[in-house]
Amino acid sequence: MAALAAGTALACAAPRAGAQTTEAARDSAARVPLVARDGSWKRFAAGFATSIAAHEAGHIAASLLQGGHPAFGLDHGRPTVYSGFDERLHPRKQFMFSSAGLDVQDLLDEAILDVPHDRGGTFERGILAGGLATTAFYLTIGRTGSVSDVAFMERTSTLGYGQIALIYGGVAALHLVRIERDGRYGQFFVRPDARAGLRVGMDWR
């Protein structure tokens, strides 16, 4: 009888344990960000590329709107958009052209963070990452390149590097704070791995 009672108790307890395990798995999956759940790094990459394309489109639009003739070329093998302006004759136009790329990316990121919608998708995470990465690039290793937007902004205005870094770096920092405080963007650059651990950063293969 004791054995029968014990068996009955185990049989009754098993479904409850299974249900609890299932609920725990659902809760855990709900906390994993969309970019990790659907495994869609292609969408993330597409969002990143969209941000870069918006940057270049901003340059082109700024040139055209000011009567310029933008041109495409290579600078040390790197695709580049040229304004069509002589910076010595038209420093203001060149400044508007050089700043337009980062301006457009900041506006795009601001719209994502401000306009009410279902936030947290993989594609828009890629857009946000693209904007932040471009700002970080131009304020660090890309600052002094021969076609650097920041270098052109310094030469064609009264702004120094510190002021430019404060403007664009400050906006990027505010965006990072807003992303961090918004639970829908939780674990922005984190995904689970096959061993039930977490991988931090980006993995290019």
Explain the overall architecture.
Helices cover 63% and strands 8% of the residues. It is mostly helical. The chain folds into 2 domains: 1-31; 39-200, no CATH class. The strands form 2 sheets. It has a two-stranded antiparallel sheet with strand order 1-2. Strands 3-4 form a two-stranded antiparallel sheet. Helix 3 runs antiparallel to helix 4.
Summarize this entry quickly.
The chain is mainly alpha-helical and 205 residues long. The protein is built from seven helices and four strands, in the order H-H-H-E-E-H-H-H-H-E-E. It is 63% helix and 8% strand.
Topology:
Layout: H1 2-31, H2 34-37, H3 41-65, E1 71-75, E2 78-82, H4 91-114, H5 122-139, H6 149-155, H7 161-181, E3 190-192, E4 198-200
Antiparallel strand pairs: 1-2, 3-4
Helix pairs in contact: 3-4, 3-5, 4-5, 4-6, 4-7, 5-7
Total strand segments:
4
Order of helices and strands: HHHEEHHHHEE
- What is the gyration radius calculated from CA atoms? 25 Å
Query: What gap, in angstroms, lies between the N and C termini?
Result: 61 Å
Descriptors:
205 residues; mainly alpha; two-stranded antiparallel sheet; two-stranded antiparallel ribbon
